[in-house]
Amino acid sequence: MKVIYLSKYSSIGPSSRYRIYQYIPYLADYGIDVDIRPLLKEGYFNIIETENFIIKNLLKIFYAIYRCIIRFFDILQAGKYDLVVIEHQVFPYLSFFFEYILRALNKNIILEFDDAIYLTHPKKMPCLIKMSKMVIVGNNFLKEYAVKYNQNVVVVPTVIDMRRYVEEGQGSRVKGEGGKIIICWIGLAYNIDYLKQLSDVFRKLSDKIALKIISNKSIEIEGVNIIFKKWSIETEVEEIQSSHIGIMPLRDDEWSRGKCGLKLLQYMAAGIPAVASPVGVNKEIITDGVNGFLASTEDEWYERLSALCKDPELRKMAGVEGRKTVEDKYSIDVWTPKLAGIYKKTVT
After folding, report:
1. Nearest CA-CA partner of 17 in 116, 158, 117
2. What phi and psi, each to the nearest 5 degrees, are found at residue 34?
3. Alpha-carbon distance 135 to 336, whole Å?
4. Mean pLDDT of 28-34
5. Residue 187's domain spans which residues?
6. 3-state secondary structure (DSSP) of residue 279
7. Would you state the pLDDT for residue 169?
8. Mean pLDDT over the full length of the chain
9. Are strands 109-113 and 83-87 parallel, antiparallel or unpaired?
10. What is the SS3 assignment for 25?
11. Mind listing the pLDDT tens digit for each residue in 226-269?
12. The CATH number of the domain where 130 resides is what?
């Protein structure tokens, strides 16, 4: 079975990396050959880090035109494949032109999305969902939206390849930065504002903790020791496992409820205890006090983090249970046969 996957990013983009790239060798075991055609490649990430506003936007325009041409030729190949999978949309800057061409060439289309992108494309997404033979979403909140326009909707959560996390987390054993507990946050730069809402909590704990930020940029919080580690796929697991606690603060809004809990699952896979806002899928992943901790208010965040800082056995217990949750429910070994079945069912 041959699949052309029109991904949003190359493997450097976390959504594409976890939704399809990591599956490639395992889907091959089920006779599924996936040809990934990314829209945005490494050059895009270099452009958005350009500091000069005018130069950055000029580069983005030219890059978008260039990638639009490439994507058009990718679409013309669609008829040669048994199945077409679209991650998010074919091209975000055009209304529905490419999708009409694609539909004419191949009717076996799966739309996949793991964010509430209908908030930014409210007119286009219903059309995309209706034209698809099957829709894959990352959580039940997104499914509630998608089933309004298509009854063939399935949930495939973001999952972890546990082969990358071969050692159990060191959350109870790491000595820390100057004897301090290392609290870890990993994510893209445009999500870093979620951290700022906990600034006062970090300041209250500043004599006990260091805050590790794994991203492509950092922030400063007055009075808090920040350890910045530039993200790379080669070092992300090591950086998480050399921390004591992982955090995922969110605002309780519709965009956040559409998120799929990737960083939360990474912490848990690494065997370190996770503390998260009880928003969206986080409430499904974490059983509070068992495999992690949920915190809504500043007081709750302070209480959860303070307790974990003081008690290495509590960190160990939550880390072990969190890892077990990922192994049982959110591992690539559990979900590869299910995804393979969805692909095959769509072309029958």
Report:
1. 158
2. -105, 125
3. 17
4. 97
5. 162-329
6. coil
7. 53
8. 93
9. parallel
10. helix
11. 999 999 999 999 999 999 999 999 999 999 999 999 999 999 99
12. 3.40.50.2000
Q: Let me know whether 117 and 176 are in one domain.
A: no
What distance in Å separates the CA atoms of residue 228 and residue 230, rounded to the nearest whole number? 6
Secondary structure letter of residue 168 according to DSSP? P
Query: Are 146 and 279 within one domain?
Result: no
| pTM to 2 decimal places | 0.92
Which tokens is 110 given?
A: 């799966």
Which pair of structure tokens corresponds to residue 316? 């160990």
Q: 273-291: b or e for each residue (b if 16 or more CB lie within 10 Å)? A: bbbbbebbbbeebbeeeeb
pLDDT at 325: 97
Q: Are residues 35 and 113 in the same domain?
A: yes
- Average pLDDT on 3-11 reads 95
Report the 3 state secondary structure along 190-248: HHCHHHHCCHHHHHHCCCCEEEEEEECCCCCCCCCCEEEEECCCCCHHHHHHCCCEEEE
Indicate whether 111 and 172 sit together in one domain. Answer: no
Please state whether beta strands 153-155 and 293-294 pair in parallel, antiparallel, or not at all (unpaired): unpaired
